[in-house]
Write a structure and sequence with these properties.
globular
């Protein structure tokens, strides 16, 4: 097998969240199965069968297949195997791009119900997530120097994942976002609540006990999930707000290219295929328009 330790030392992605995920997959799945195998023993059908037997979601299996592909590319670059078609290209993962369940989308009134049960500063974090559609890693990566009060805009420059600052997900993610006056007012109130006058290099959402950003998983389990369950909306996560933001843009008839810019997607197909879900009220309104054409009032 391609020398996993060498890969860990030389080839890990720079982005902290991706590197951490790769390290976890290598440790828990790849090394236990393939570490003692020679490269020419690792055949596509064997890998395919291994993936089928893993108790993972199809999308996770697809990620593992991609990691195996990366490892074989490294082996060719290091000249451990001849330059050839990467054998992992032949591995198939059933429903690899299919979601196990549709992402949860919140209507505005549902979001407001949830907010009633979430304390500050997490309430303001949720408002930022819903209003701007930011990933939670980007919210935690905000510093006060990223807020341009005069220009009424906010810069997305970095992320904060697993206790470390790092790059945003893609180059397209790094961008200035418009800051609505109402949201700016919320952020000003949050700034005034901070224990000490905010330094420009301070994190916007810092734990006062550590001076570093909060852990999003703890906020989700301690506040987001209980709040949503309390009002009968089931389980939600931080990404629910991003999906909901996208759906509201769509329901308001915002141009698709503008939606892409606001969500900072590198590929417009991501905006079209993953993040845009019509909210129920929009579905009903659109359907009613069709029904009125097909069944005019005098016929009904």
């Amino acid at each position: 097998m391609c020398r996993v330790e060498r890969y860990l030392a030389q080839e890990l992605p720079e982005r902290n969240s991706t590197a951490s995920r790769y390290q976890s997959w290598l440790k828990n799945y790849v090394k236990p199965k393939w570490a003692e195998c020679l490269l020419d023993q690792i055949k596509p059908l064997l890998v395919e069968d291994w993936l089928k037997k893993l108790s993972l979601a199809p999308k996770s299996k697809s990620h593992l297949k991609n990691l195996m592909h990366v490892l074989f590319n490294a082996a060719m670059r290091w000249e451990l195997i001849p330059y050839q078609l990467n054998p992992m290209s032949l591995v198939r993962v059933k429903d690899g791009s299919k979601r196990m369940r549709e992402p949860r989308v919140l209507a505005v009134d549902e979001f407001l119900q949830i907010l009633e049960h979430i304390p500050e500063p997490f309430r303001t974090m949720c408002i930022v997530a819903m209003c701007l559609g930011l990933r939670v890693s980007e919210i935690l990566g905000l510093k006060w120097c990223d807020v341009d009060w005069e220009g009424m805009r906010i810069g997305i420059r970095q992320s904060y994942v697993y206790g470390k600052p790092g790059a945003v997900k893609t180059p397209a993610s790094q961008r200035w976002m418009p800051l609505d006056p109402s949201l700016a007012k919320k952020l000003r109130h949050h700034q005034l609540r901070c224990a000490s006058p905010a330094n420009k290099e301070d994190w916007v959402f810092a734990n006062p006990g550590t001076g570093k950003p909060y852990w999003p998983g703890k906020i989700q389990e301690n506040w987001l999930v209980p709040a949503a369950e309390k009002v009968g909306l089931g389980r939600i996560g931080w990404h629910t707000f991003r999906h909901s933001h996208s759906s509201l843009l769509h329901a308001l008839g915002v141009d698709l290219k503008v939606q892409q810019e606001l969500l900072r997607h590198a590929d417009i197909r991501t905006t079209m295929n993953i993040y845009t879900h019509a909210v129920p009220a929009a579905l009903r309104k659109a359907n009613s328009k069709v029904v009125r054409l097909v069944l005019p009032a005098q016929v009904a």
